């Protein structure tokens, strides 16, 4: 007969997980970051990408330019940008064989970008 090395039930683990999430949300709100902003951006690389787009807001950046600035592959950049596009943080224009990405005007003053 096998015995479990865990001294807690799975129900307690879920409760703890939610408590950590609530603590994180409270800390973010104390820092002035709203729930909406947290839900839009949840990966550190996405924050770096958004900051890069903010710095180049007038001309926008190609996927390759973003990859070079961030030091990650173009495939990873695209993987990070597509959810941001779906959430309404960025937009893109197709120019021949590549895309030019822009930070949307209403995202220019997100508190999460002011780091």
TrEMBL record:
Alphabetized UniProt keyword annotations: Transcription, Transcription regulation
Signal peptide start and end residues: none
Keyword set includes Transcription regulation: yes
Asked if the keyword Transcription regulation belongs to this entry, the reply reads yes
Q: Which Pfam families match?
A: FaeA (PF04703)
Q: Which InterPro entries match?
A: FaeA, WH-like_DNA-bd_sf, WH_DNA-bd_sf
Q: In its UniProt entry, what is this protein called? A: FaeA/PapI family transcriptional regulator
Which species is the source of this protein? Answer: Erwinia aphidicola
Its lineage opens with: Bacteria, Pseudomonadati, Pseudomonadota, Gammaproteobacteria, Enterobacterales
């Amino acid at each position: 007969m096998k015995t479990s090395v865990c001294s807690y039930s799975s129900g307690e683990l879920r409760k703890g997980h939610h408590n950590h999430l609530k603590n994180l949300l409270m800390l973010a709100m104390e820092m002035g970051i709203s729930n909406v902003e947290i839900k839009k951006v949840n990966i550190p690389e996405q924050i770096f990408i958004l900051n890069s787009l903010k710095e180049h807001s007038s001309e926008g950046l190609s996927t390759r330019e973003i990859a070079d600035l961030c030091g990650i592959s173009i495939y990873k950049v695209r993987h990070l940008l597509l959810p941001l596009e779906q959430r309404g943080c960025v937009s893109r224009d197709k120019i021949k064989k590549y895309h030019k990405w822009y930070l949307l005007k209403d995202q220019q003053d997100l508190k999460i970008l002011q780091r």
